[in-house]
Sequence to fold (92 residues):
Amino acid sequence: MKKKYTFNDYLKKQESKDPSFRTKYEHEVQLANIAMQIAHAREEKGMSQDELAKKIHTTQQVISDIERLKYPNMTINTLLKITSALRIHITL
Fold:
């Protein structure tokens, strides 16, 4: 019987090709977790992306990009503004 190829197998194979792969992967997982926490908190509070954007003096597109992991330049300052506006704590 042929062994199933799992996601962990894929990670190990990629890591063998590039030793820094796992670190990069874990970094992306953390960013995705932050984005999901922001989107969930915003939706839970009944706030639109535009409303959140106005509270932190940015654009709706920036909030959308953050939530979809398309905003590579998010700073700690931006994250603090978002958490303050949403009155939440982010788990890293």
